[in-house]
Write a structure and sequence with these properties.
This protein is of the alpha/beta class. It has one domain (9-319): Histone deacetylase domain (Arginase, Chain A, 3-Layer(aba) Sandwich). It has 10 helices and 8 strands. It has helices spanning 9-20, 34-37, 42-56, 81-88, 100-120, 153-161, 179-185, 234-251, 277-289, 304-319; strands at 128-132, 168-172, 191-198, 223-228, 232-233, 255-260, 273-274, 294-298. Helix 3 crosses helix 4 and helix 8 runs parallel beside helix 9. The protein is globular, with a radius of gyration of 19 Å.
Length: 322
């Protein structure tokens, strides 16, 4: 059995970076459930919160985690925990353990704290926020978990920010396509979603992330995918990023949410491209150059040996700390 990629040690490594640069890390305060339920179905959130207890209460031993081999999102009344798992788990990479809900909930609260900082800021001092949001969120759909993702932090804070900002842009540079963000905003023109990711033909999530997926109805043209051929070099990565940035510049958002994945790093086990450590500094500089309030959600990245260095590089580009 393969070892999981999404492990607590990732956060240990990531937190070394701000410490090395002398940057303060604050602990999130509770914002609550309302912003979560503004994006996700109530029954799905209840499953995430209570599913483990229901699973363990069964007389039959189904294992130590809620993890389904049955996938039935539709025509499924959700009667019993097996049916709920079949309804709400999109694939086998989002199991639920005893303490999962605590991590899931506080990951979302962390992102919401960044949104709250922008909403309450009158001085511009809080214009750049970086969140250590683990577990990540961009694969989480309105009512389905998958790809290590349970609550869609980017979507939750985009919706929350709409109370102050008319137009939100989400740029996703994680190695994988964020099908959850795409689904949630697919028919809307107030949130632009642009994603740079590895070509999803025979690569997770496998069924979305193609260039022809441009949104529908009012949202047509506000969903832009830039799939990279596998094996793309760093220059090619930035060519795709620049296309995404050009689209955002035309959209002229009031605030930008950056879903940052360190799994585009050249030695990451998930990488299908060749971004260097220095490349993350360049990426941050490109985000800052847009001159907009910015929230960065640190999501993917599974090469533990370089998470600290890669985040330090990104932070140096974000803060001009050399």
């Amino acid at each position: 059995m393969e070892e999981p990629l999404e492990i607590p040690e990732r956060m240990t490594e990531l937190l070394k970076a701000p410490a090395a640069l002398g940057l303060d890390v604050t602990t999130a305060k509770e914002v609550g459930m309302s912003p979560i339920l503004a994006v996700h179905d109530f029954g799905y959130v209840q499953f995430l919160k209570h599913g483990y207890d229901e699973w363990m209460a069964l007389d039959d031993d189904l294992g130590a985690q809620v993890q389904t081999g049955i996938f039935m999102p539709y025509d499924n009344p959700g009667i019993g925990i097996m049916a709920k798992a079949a309804k709400y788990q999109a694939d086998d990479s989002a199991p639920i353990s005893e303490h999962s809900w605590t991590s899931i909930y506080w990951s979302a609260q962390t992102a919401l704290n960044a949104a709250e900082a922008l909403l309450s800021d009158e001085s511009g001092d809080s214009d750049v926020q970086l969140c250590f949001s683990r577990p990540p969120g961009h694969h989480a759909r309105r009512s389905a978990a998958g790809g290590f993702c349970y609550l869609n932090n980017a979507a939750i804070i985009a919706e929350h920010l709409r109370q102050k900002y008319a137009k939100i842009a989400i740029i996703d540079t994680d190695m994988h396509h964020g099908q959850g963000i795409q689904e949630i905003f697919y028919d809307r023109s107030d949130v632009l979603y642009t994603s740079v990711h590895g070509d999803t033909v025979n690569f997770y999530p496998g069924v979305t992330g193609h260039e022809f997926e441009k949104g529908e109805g009012e949202g047509y043209g506000y969903n832009l995918n830039f799939p990279m051929p596998h094996g793309t070099d760093e220059a090619g990565f930035f060519e795709h990023v620049d296309k995404s940035i050009e689209a955002m510049s035309v959209f002229d958002p009031d605030v930008i949410i950056h879903v940052l994945g360190f799994d585009v790093y050249k030695d990451d086990p998930e990488a299908k491209c060749e971004v260097s450590t220095e490349g993350f500094k360049v990426l941050a500089q490109k985000m800052i150059a847009l001159g907009k309030p910015l929230i960065v959600l640190v999501e993917g990245g599974y090469y533990l040996q370089k998470l600290n260095d890669n985040l330090q590089a990104f932070l140096s580009g974000l803060t001009d700390v050399s």
